[in-house]
Amino acid sequence: MKGKVMTHIESKKNIPEKTALGIIEKPINRRNFLAFTGISAVALTIGLQSCSDDPVTPSGFIDVGTGDIGVLNYAYALEQLEAAFYVRAASAFYNGATSEEIQILTDIREHEIAHREFFKAALGTSAIRALEVNFDSIDFTSRASVLGTAKTFEDLGVSAYNGVAYIIQNVDYLALAGKIVSVEARHAAAISDLLSPRTIAFANDTVINAAGLELTNTPQAVVNAANGFLKTKISANNLA
Amino acid sequence: MKLINMFNNIEEKINEAPVSRRQAFNKAGELGIKTLLASLPFALGATLLPKKSYAQSATIIEVLNFALTLEYLESKFYVTGLAAPSLIPAGDRTVFMQISKHETAHVAALRATITSLGGTPVAEPTFDFTAGGAFPTVFSIYSTFITIAQAFEDTGVRAYKGQAGNLISNDAVLTAALQIHSVEARHASEVRRIRGQKGWIVNSDPGGAPPAIYTNENNLIQGGVNISTFVSAQAATEAFDEPLTMAEVLAIVGPFIV
C-alpha cells in the first residue's frame, strides 16, 4: 500500500493541476509536505505507519490527512467543491432565475471563494492540491437541479463541520471553523427557503432532530457524497 | 441582575486565563519549538500551540447555564409571540412555530445535559421583552417582533461561537453546542430574509436591531489572512461570522432580563 500511494504522489509531482476555475495550480510539493508533517518524529512515524498499515486509504485518492491539518484540508476540499459549483451556476443562471435568486447565488459564490482561498492561504504548503470537479449530473439550466444541488452541498457542509469539530485540538482553528459553519447554515436556510418558501424547509425535521440539534455526518459519509461531484476523488479515513 | 453578575464573574475568570498566548509562545520558544513555528506558514504558525495553553476557567456547566439562559430568552419570546393575537401573519406562522419548537427543545436539551453532568440548571429568569420600554410594540407590531427575533438569533449565533473554545475539552458537549449553533444560524437567516435583509450579516449593519449585536462583524482578517484580497470587503465580512464574549452577550440581553 505504501509503495502504491507514494508512487501515485510521485507520478503527480510534475503535472500541473487545472482547477475548476481553469487556473493552473502549482502541484503539491511533496518535500515541503513531508517537512511539515514531520515537525516531530512522532508525527512522522504515525504518518508513515498510516501510509503503510492503513489499507483504507484508496490509491489514487487525495487523502486530507490527519489531526488539525487534516480537518482544515477536509474543509478546504469541501469549500473547493462548493466554490466551483457556485462559480459555474453563476456563470449562466438557470432559466427564470429571479433577481433575488441571482443575488443569493452570487453572494454565496463570493463567500465560498472566500472560504476556499482562506484555507488555501492558511494551509500554505500543507494544503491539498486543487481538486477537479465533475458536475455532469447537474443541469445548470434547471432551477430545481441547481437549487437542489446547492441545498445538498450546504446541508452537507454544515453536517461535515459539525461532525469533525471535536477532532480539532487548536482553539484558534476551532474558532475559525465556527465562523464559517454558521455562514454555511445561513446559506442552507436561504437556499431551502427559495425551494419551499416560508415553510419549515429552512430548518426541517430531517436536518434538525427532536432535541433541536442539527445532524452531523462522519467524514466517510461526507466524502462519499462529495466524491460524486469530484473528478479528483478525496478520502478522509484518517482524520480522527 | 443577580444572574448577570454571576456571569460577569465567569467572564472575568475567563479573561484571567492562566497562560496568555504570548506567554505560551515564549514557552514554546523555551522548548525549542520557536524555530519550527517560524518556518510554518504565518497563518498557521502563529497559532500552532497546544490547546492546553488556552486553559479556560469557565467550567462547562457555567457555559451551559449561560447558553440555557439565552435559550430561555428565545423560547419565551417565541411562545409569547405565537400567543399574541394578530401579531404573526398567517403566511409566516409555520416558520415561527418551527423556530419556537427548536428553542423549547434547546432548553430541554441543555437542562438535561447540565443535570447529567452533575450540575444544576439555572432557573428561568423573568423577561421584559420591551427592554424597559425601548420596544413597547414587540408583541403588537410585527416589524418590531421580527426585529427583536433577528436580534436574538444573531446574538445566539455569536454567543455559541464565542463559547466553543471553552468546551473544547468535552467532545460530546462541544458537538452538541455546535449542533445548536448552526440551528440558530438557520433561524437567523430565515428571520433576516423575512425582514427583507440578506440571510448573512453585511459589514456591521444592524438592520434596525441594537448595533452592539453587530460589533466587529466587519472584521476582514481571519487567522492572519486578509479575506478582502480574495473577494470584496463586503463579501469578506459576510463570509465569516464573528464571536461575542459572554460579557458582550450579557450586555446585549441584560435589558431584556428583569
Brief characterization of the structure:
The complex is a heterodimer of chains A (240) and B (258). With 240 residues, chain A is mostly helical. Chain A has eight helices and four strands, in the order αββααβαααααβ.
Task: Describe the SSE topology.
The complex is a heterodimer of chains A (about 240) and B (about 260).
Chain A: H1 2-12, E1 17-18, E2 24-25, H2 30-37, H3 41-53, E3 62-63, H4 67-91, H5 99-123, H6 143-164, H7 171-195, H8 219-227, E4 234-235
Parallel strand pairs in A: 3-4
Antiparallel strand pairs in A: 1-2
Helix pairs in contact in A: 4-5, 4-6, 5-7, 6-7, 6-8
Chain B: H1 2-15, H2 21-30, H3 34-39, H4 42-45, H5 60-83, H6 90-116, H7 142-163, H8 171-194, E1 221-222, E2 225-226, H9 233-239, H10 246-253
Antiparallel strand pairs in B: 1-2
Helix pairs in contact in B: 5-6, 5-7, 6-8, 7-8, 7-10
Describe this protein's structure.
The complex is a heterodimer of chains A (240) and B (258). By secondary structure, chain A is mainly α. Chain A has eight helices and four strands. In chain A, the strands form two sheets. Chain A has a two-stranded antiparallel sheet. A two-stranded parallel ribbon of chain A has the order 3-4. In chain A, β1 (17-18) and β2 (24-25) form a beta hairpin. The longest helix of chain A is centred in the first third of the chain and has 25 residues, at 67-91. The radius of gyration of chain A is 18 Å and the shape is globular. The two termini of chain A are 20 Å apart. Residues 1-55 of chain A have low confidence and may be disordered. Chain B has 258 residues and is an all-alpha fold. Chain B is built from ten helices and two strands. Chain B has helices spanning 2-15, 21-30, 34-39, 42-45, 60-83, 90-116, 142-163, 171-194, 233-239, 246-253, and strands at 221-222, 225-226. Chain B has a two-stranded antiparallel sheet with strand order 1-2. In chain B, a hairpin with a 2-residue loop joins β1 and β2 (225-226). In chain B, α7 runs antiparallel to α8. The N and C termini of chain B lie close together (7 Å). Residues 1-57 of chain B have low confidence and may be disordered. Classes of the chains: A mainly alpha (240), B mainly alpha (258).
